[in-house]
Amino acid sequence: MHCPFCRHPDSRVVDSRTSDDGSTIRRRRQCPHCNRRFTTVETASLSVVKRSGATEPFSREKIAGGVRKACQGRPVSEDDLALLAQKVEETLRSAGSAEIDAYEIGLAILGPLRELDEVAYLRFASVYQAFDSLEDFEAAITVLRAERDSEQGAGADDESTATDEDVRTT
Question: Is the alpha carbon torsion for 136, 141, 147, 150 positive or negative?
């Protein structure tokens, strides 16, 4: 690490601290030549492998930007987009790989986006999964409805069971 003040090619670490979320390490360094101190921040790199085979650094901003287009005109805030991008990054980092295929990123986006806004989910999925016809949209909507109905049905079953037990105890 070169000293930012005198450009000396060496420095020594005086103090190291991990961030609260554990994703970065902050190091205080001191230059042996000029004795000035400076701070560096280290993060584990995450690279995206594009379809063309090229690699580029992972960017939360690109995730939010792509999803922002799908959310246009929807009641989704910038904070919601930032949180979604953070969830996607955490999911990808938990996979334990330094290189992630661009396709995997799209898959990681679909789940949190569906929870955030179903219409935006359909918009994103239609581009990501290359919908070719109305039938593709109808199939995706049918799956969404079935999943929503099964989630609501599970909640209704729990309530009816509790009600049945209450009636029996009286």
Answer: negative
Residue 74: φ, ψ to 5°: -105, 160
Q: Decide: 41 and 32 in contact? Cβ < 8 Å.
A: no
Cα separation, 91 vs 93, in Å, equals 6
Of 46, 30, 47, the residue nearest 38 (C-alpha)? 30
What pTM did the predictor assign? 0.65
Tokens, residue 134 = 């109305």
Helix 78-94 / helix 60-70 crossing angle, nearest 10 deg:
130
Answer yes or no: are the C-beta atoms of 116 and 80 closer than 8 Å.
yes
**pLDDT tens figures, 121-153:** 999 989 888 889 999 999 999 998 888 888 887
Q: CB under 8 Å to 47, separation ≥6 — which residues?
A: 55, 56, 57, 58, 98, 99, 100
